[in-house]
Amino acid sequence: IVGGTVSTVESHPWIAAIFWRSKSKQNVFRCGGSLISACWVITAAHCFPEGSQTRHQRLSVTLGKNALNESDSTVEQTFRVEQIFIHEQFNHSEQNYNNDIALLKLKAMYGKCAEETNSVKTVCLPPPLKSLPPGTTCEIAGYGKEKFGLWYNSQFLRKAQVNLLADDVCRQKDYYGEMVNNNMFCAARPDWSQDACEGDSGGPLVCEVDNTLFLFGIVSWGDGCAKENKPGVYTRVTNYNKWIEEKTSLPTITTG
Ligand code: 4AZ
Fold first, then answer.
1. Would you say the CB of residue 100 lies under 6 angstroms from ligand 1?
2. What is this enzyme's class at the first EC digit (predicted)?
3. Nearest residue CA, atom 4 of ligand 1?
4. I need a surface site. Which of 7, 47, 97, 192 has the fewest CB within 10 A?
């Protein structure tokens, strides 16, 4: 997050930190995500490059995390991943990350996945096709970089506020032109001072409707961070209610 402030996980209790275990057994932070039900985290498809690295055995998800490089076992809940669903129409070779959405099924421990606490809660999905007017202020959160090009992520969870941009504005030539399609929307600070950045990918953009926060966007891409005329681009979650329902209601394959 560029230009934001340190936040506490209690104010974004659905945030998930997704780690990948490297060959040297180190847990490397990969992406953000959002807890949408006890056993399901929604994130971005581009967090999982093609090939062997995408093996779910290498992934873990931590909920309730304030500091990226320290663990607090009194509030954190860590899970292995049982299954990954990457959107069937996501294409790694395309530049614009169309259908940048994925679901991770957490592996239950003693028959349970996430347990609700002050630091761990689910976020609501908005109703299908619900759209909010341009200018609506929404909130993003993540452990990503505080400046584009830095080599390290933020040590603490950070948040920022961004406004939804009209689609025709974001599709102007000096913005992103044809790169932005209807499965995406743009959001930015009017003075370009706050934005998502590398490492925030997969994480939440939430907007309040009738006193309830809903997950409207998933951090997806952008040209740099907090750059003039280059807003953050988010996966339009309201286009995927059916896909999410389909995947999360699928029976689990068990072996042994
Ligand atoms: C990234 O590389 C990334 N400013 C995520 C979000 C944005 C830019 C880059 C938006 O993961």
1. no
2. hydrolase
3. 225
4. 192
Q: What is the ipTM of this complex?
A: 0.97
pLDDT digits (tens, 9 = 90+) for 134-180: 999 999 999 999 999 999 999 999 999 999 999 999 999 999 999 99
Paired tokens of 153 = 């992520």
Residue of the CA atom closest to atom 11 of ligand 1 = 198
42: which strand partners?
Answer: 34, 103
- pTM for this one? 0.96
Nearest residue to 59 via CA among 36, 29, 101, 90: 29
Ligand 1 atom nearest residue 227's Cα: 4
- In degrees and rounded to multiples of 5, residue 10 shows phi and psi of -65, -25
Q: Which amino acid is at 246?
A: E
